[in-house]
Each structure stands twice: as structure tokens, then as C-alpha cells.
Design brief:
Layout: H1 10-39, H2 41-48, H3 56-73
Helix pairs in contact: 1-2, 1-3
Length: 78
């Protein structure tokens, strides 16, 4: 997309990098949930080790913050 200049603006690049990071994080959280549902009590004990039933939200939030930090400080095209 970059090489063929489909994405020309810095705004689109930032939007796409953040949304791709969020999509990957969401897919992982769904996979984690699915494994918990399929494995029954073993999945509950695995998720119980994290100590928080709302662990998904901070995981995705911190992945998004990390992605925005990397885009701003490391990968910001000039």
C-alpha cells in the first residue's frame, strides 16, 4: 500500500497502523476467550491466573497506546 502510494497522507498511515494493531489484539483476545470456552474448567483456571475478568480491555488499550507511541516516536514518516 505504501509502495504503490495508495496511502498518501500521514493521517491515513497513522489510522491504518493503529487499527491493524487493534484488530490483531482483538483477534488474540477472541482466541483466548474461545480456548477458555472450549476447554471448560481448564480455561477458567488459565484466565483465573490473570486475576481479572476484565483483562481484555486493558490489554487492548495498552496495545493501542504502545502502537501510537511507536508510530509517533519511531516510525513517523517525514
Amino acid at each position: 500500500m505504501i509502495r504503490k502510494q495508495v496511502v498518501r497522507g500521514k493521517g491515513w498511515m497513522a489510522f491504518l497502523t493503529v487499527t491493524v494493531c487493534m484488530a490483531i489484539s482483538m483477534c488474540y483476545e477472541f482466541l483466548e476467550w474461545f480456548v477458555s470456552v472450549v476447554s471448560g474448567s481448564a480455561g477458567d483456571s488459565f484466565l483465573g491466573t490473570q486475576g481479572d475478568v476484565w483483562n481484555t480491555q486493558p490489554d487492548m488499550l495498552f496495545a493501542t497506546i504502545g502502537d501510537m507511541h511507536d508510530y509517533i516516536h519511531v516510525g513517523n514518516p517525514k
